[in-house]
Amino acid sequence: MANNQNARLERRKFFSDPILVSMIVILIVFLALFILYPLLMLLLDSVFTEGKVTLDVFRRVLSMQRFRKAFTNTLVLGFIVGLASTLIGLLFAYVEVYVKVRTKVLEKLFGVVSMLPVVSPPFVLSLSMIMLFGRSGLITRTLLHIYDADVYGLKGIAIVQTLTFFPVCYLMLKGLLKNIDPSLEEATRDMGATRWKVFTSVTLPLLLPGLGNAFLVTFIESVADFANPMMIGGSYDTLATTIYLQVTGSFDSTGAAAMSVVLLSLTVVLFLIQKYYLERKTAATLTGKASRERMLITDKSVTIPLTIFCTLVAAFVTLMYIMVPFGALFTLWGRNYSLSLKWFQYMFKTSGLIAFRDSIVLSLIAAPLTALLSMVIAYLVVKRKFKAKGFIEFVSMLAMAVPGTVLGIGYIRGYANGLFRTGVMQGLYGTGLILIIVFIVRSLPTGTRSGISALRQIDKSIEESAYDMGANSARVFTTVTLPLIKDSFFSGLVTSFVRSITAISAFILLVTPQYLLITCQINEQAEKGNYGVACAYATVLIVITYGMVLIMNGLIRIFGTSRGTGE
Amino acid sequence: MAKEKKGVRLEHISKIYQDPKTKKEFYAVKDTTLDIEPGTFVTLLGPSGCGKTTTLRMIAGFESPDEGEIYLGGEPINELTPNKRDTAMVFQSYALLPHYNVFDNVAYGLKIRKLPKSEIKQKVTDILRLVELEGMESRMTNQLSGGQQQRVALARALVLEPGVLLFDEPLSNLDAKLRVSMRTEIRKIQQKVGITAIYVTHDQSEAMSLSDKIIIMSKGKVEQIGTPREVYYRPSSRFVADFIGEANFLDAKVKEARGEKALIEVNGEEMEVNNYIGRKPGEEACLVLRPEAVLLADKGQLPCEVTLSTFMGAYQYYQVKAGEVTVQITDYNPVNKKIYETGEKAFLDFDTDGVYIL
Ligand SMILES: Nc1ncnc2c1ncn2[C@@H]1O[C@H](COP(=O)(O)OP(=O)(O)OP(=O)(O)O)[C@@H](O)[C@H]1O
Ligand SMILES: [Mg+2]
Questions:
Q1: Is the same domain home to A144 and A206?
Q2: What residues contact residue A83 under an 8 Å CB cut-off, 6+ apart?
Q3: How close, in Å, is residue B251 to chain A by CA atoms?
């Protein structure tokens, strides 16, 4: 059929909007240059040797005992952490949605637990784990008088990662459980099923894709995590740390590139399954809202054990965070528990101020750019029709599946000697700008995701009406779209600031002595065994991130969209 | 008030969509040619899914036609984006900007046109008075009733003085009573301003009461264009006769055609009736009888048997069998007449000069 007139007219209309067109071009260039190109370089590096296509590098890497071990380690770890986080997350979500507990303490604890993934630097739990259970740990040595306690290795990482990631599962599953229509369960119960039977025959099957989804999300997080295995892994190397050591220890960046390709393929495959299969299935089984309030479970034999378990876990997590400032305040961890400010003083006397300045300034520059960019992408993806849309959506989501370490190696291979090693854009490498760009790339997917879901709520005719009254796309975006998704914009702003200032994996590879980043300082001090200083840095970092979250909530309250967009 | 009334012309317009499930392409609008005179109020009427919204959105510029050209005031506008077209649309969901108050909603388009502040204020005040919303300038839109929101949407479109005003089922979110009063209001305002208006609805009483002309669509095609009277009294097809009001159809055979008249045979009886669409001798046709244009009597044109007789207050409702066909009759003046009971034999009585074949 004659479709070409339509295509021609659409093209005409599209190109009569220069701002829109240039925005899209800029986006495509940005995504291609800073996400696709570095990954492409990794692939090229690992299949080209001296201008020929060979699999030599892969063969070499695969024959490394160390690499094979790291590969298995990563999978084992990811599996354990994925399973444990999903289970604990499910218990928490179940208690929140189904069980009548309603004690103030527990509600507070649940609140804390759901806040943590937002504000926490990723390795804080490793730090306190070592301080509590390590060789000079508060619990192991001081309380239990065990002098050769070993937290390092698989069990250490698994515990720390589980505690770090289960809140994500909890939040995901909570949303799903709330969407289950209570009458489904009541009907089964009415037919004589026990509570356990109801759970296994109704709730669980409905939830299954969601559980799979949560499992994979944590699996990916665990596989991509660099900071925790680095700090508490001991001799248990994962792919991420092996890649890092391959560059910084063995100076073999082609080998690292090949390893990165393996790690990247792993996360991308998992990500694709998660995004295009499980997420869809989850949405298909659990649609719509619960029709009315659920009768909460009051049966003591159910509520008491669940409550106790959740309280213990939540309290333990909270305790681990509380450890951090104390780690900085005690004179010498493990020996002398008198309070002093000497670690803070030491921090500020050495590189502290510069590290804070650099981290904060770079993150402050990156955050608004990220927030704006992700809203623009969300707008284009949800509200506009154009050819390159699939590309933009896919690449900006793909960034979610790229582990920081892989991205770091990609940037080294791709930019250290300029574009395609031609020297073009060589000036970029080692500057603050490239750090900012990586900050943006790392936070873009989350921002885009929240922007997309916010925009989907808005009736398309609202924007059409503005367009109809004469506004061009730029005007529609700034006067209608952006104001309507303010909340999402603000939270994107803060999330990307927090993510930037707490990020480490990509940066530890890219940062030059010119810039000091807080996270790299913490890592360095912890490696040297200076836990006091590491804790001092971490304490200030937590205060900064928490402060930002408070500011965000304030902003949303003041400028928030309670004016009626929620209709 | 409007600077210039503009006519709209659609020339052989088609729109092809792809069915999202089967991936098969189909015509949502097919080869439609329309001429809408400047200053008239025209409705697009048709059953759900017949392509009314699609047609309207092509005029507004949100969709591009696959074939054909659209003219506004004589200028081809196919290549213009919605913001460059001299049209203004009133949306079914109102689509008011929820973060603006009434004044800012109405002023939005004027600000884009960079009018001076004082002029904007003057125009907004005037138009809000016209739609009887003065004093509500600083209300947020969610503090208005449905009817008031509707009027803001109307004011916002009117204030731009567009060449043509487009409505997509603007009243369907209102309750029945308000719908009736709003539609008279819309008609009043349109006549006062003298603007060209194209109005989409699937409510025939709305179309009847509002329009200068009604365009009846079915399955992406125009079935008939005419005044409300024309489409009711002289429908051009069985679809239109059936869609507008109630109608009984009796099979007929054309014996002779004489100008606008024809001699036909129905259930073995011969009679001369109107033949507006030029049926030829020998053709199978159908005789159209509106329920209110037929009475039951002891003498008449066609014999029948009563199968149902119900008292409805304002009228007596009959179902009768004439030949093989069930015919419905509404008799509005039964007081001094004989009421026929179920099972009785009677005759259909109608004025042969007032009925027609299709
Ligand atoms: N974007 C689209 N993609 C595919 N098909 C579409 C699209 N928009 C509309 N259609 C189809 O085109 C046909 C005409 O739709 P349209 O919205 O014009 O109908 P309508 O006459 O306005 O109906 P209603 O009275 O229900 O609003 C329908 O079959 C509809 O399903
Ligand atoms: Mg419609």
A1: yes
A2: A215
A3: 39
Domain that residue A350 falls in = 1-44+342-567
pLDDT of residue B1: 45
Give the mutation candidate from A12, A385, A468 for the B interface (greatest B CB count, under 10 A): A468
- Looking at the structure, tell me whether residues A92 and A143 fall in a common domain: yes
Chain B residues whose C-beta is within 8 A of a chain A C-beta are 14-16, 25, 60-62, 64-67, 78-84, 87-89, 91-93, 95-99, 108-109, 112-113, 140-142, 156-157, 160
Cβ(B52) – ligand 1 distance below 6 Å: yes
Taking a C-beta distance cutoff of 8 angstroms, is the pair B202, B44 a contact? no
Res A114: pLDDT: 74
pLDDT at A291: 58
Per-residue pLDDT, A502: 86
Calculate the alpha carbon distances from B133 to A489, A564, B103, B157, B169 in Å: 34, 20, 10, 15, 21
Comparing CB atoms, the residue among A2, A12, A471 nearest residue B67 is A2
Is pLDDT above 80 for A524? yes
Residues of A in contact with B113 (CB under 8 A): 470
Residues with CB under 5 A from ligand 2 (ion): B 53
Q: Answer with the one of A291, A309, A334 that is the final residue of a domain.
A: A334
Query: How many domains is chain A partitioned into structurally?
Result: 2
Which domains, from first to last, does chain B contain? 8-239 (3.40.50.300), 246-357 (2.40.50.140)
Other beta carbons within 10 angstroms of residue A315's beta carbon come to 15
Torsion angle defined by CA atoms of residues A495, A86, A218 and A501, in that order, rounded to the nearest 10 degrees: 30
Interface predicted TM-score (ipTM) of this complex, two decimals? 0.83
What is the pLDDT at residue A564?
41
**Nearest neighbour of A468 by CB, restricted to B15, B67, B82:** B82
The H or E element containing residue A355 is helix A352-383
pLDDT of residue A563: 44
pTM value? 0.82
Whether residue A303 is contained in a domain is answered as yes
